[in-house]
Specification:
Strand 1, helix 2 and strand 2 form a beta-alpha-beta unit. The protein has four helices and seven strands. 28% of the residues lie in helices and 17% in strands. The strands form two sheets. It has a four-stranded antiparallel sheet. It has a three-stranded mixed sheet with strand order 1-2-5, with no helix packed on it. Bound molecules: 2-acetamido-2-deoxy-beta-D-glucopyranose (2 copies). One 2-acetamido-2-deoxy-beta-D-glucopyranose (NAG) binds next to strand 5.
């Protein structure tokens, strides 16, 4: 067993805390379709937007990035009914700058398609579900998740830390705060032990 009071252990412990915090709390930006941009699916990959959301777990605070040539395409958020019938009238949200970020701010189902006539019928349509979060809190999800090797048993105490705003300056600050908190907590715990 390592010497729990050593500064080295405390540093390691603070680092683990950071990793846990990152995998649990930080928000992710997902590029819709991954390597494929937002557009009419190619015949080789015609169900790309059906499969893509199944490989991701979305949560509040995450965002979806739609990339496309702005002169040729657009993104609209529509109702479930409009999604099913490819009705492009009266969208909930219309974005056409080619680099559109949809921010997930509530639970539920979100339906997107192209605002360009004919594209919806060619399966350029995306439905995502944002669930209650039990799966979103598993450390094994999200890009950059590291293997959860030696999770200390006291981590559930930190389960309710509020998500930091996703803008980068404050994220940097919260990383710093998390590191400090983690260090102090670890120091206290190893002091007790
Ligand atoms: C989502 O948030 C980003 C900045 O965080 C903002 O630029 C963008 O306009 C937002 N998207 C929508 C659809 O409001
Ligand atoms: C969230 O969970 C509650 C009860 O656990 C359930 O009633 C509700 O439908 C769920 N919401 C979603 C979006 O899954």
């Amino acid at each position: 067993m390592a010497n729990l009071g050593s500064p080295r252990y405390q540093l390691l412990c603070a680092f683990q805390f950071l990793v846990l915090l990152q995998t649990k709390v930080f928000c992710y930006q997902y590029k819709v379709g991954d390597l494929d941009a937002w557009g009419i699916p190619t015949s080789a990959n015609s169900d790309v937007y059906t499969y893509w959301p199944k490989n991701h777990v979305f949560k509040i605070g995450d965002s979806l990035l739609f990339l496309y040539p702005p002169s040729q395409d657009s993104v609209i958020q529509v109702t479930q009914q409009s999604f099913n019938t490819c009705n492009l009238k009266d969208p909930i949200l219309y974005m056409n700058n080619g680099n559109s970020l949809f921010n997930i701010t509530s639970l539920g189902d979100f339906y997107f398609t192209s605002g360009t006539a004919g594209h919806c019928e060619k399966k350029q349509k995306l439905h995502i579900s944002v669930g209650n979060g039990s799966t979103a809190y598993s450390p094994s999800y999200g890009p950059g998740a590291l293997p959860d090797t030696a999770a200390p048993s006291y981590t559930p105490v930190f389960g309710n830390i509020p998500a930091p705003p996703s803008s980068s300056p404050s994220q940097g600050l919260s990383v710093f705060i998390a590191a400090v908190v983690g260090f102090v907590v670890c120091a206290v715990i190893s002091g007790i032990m």
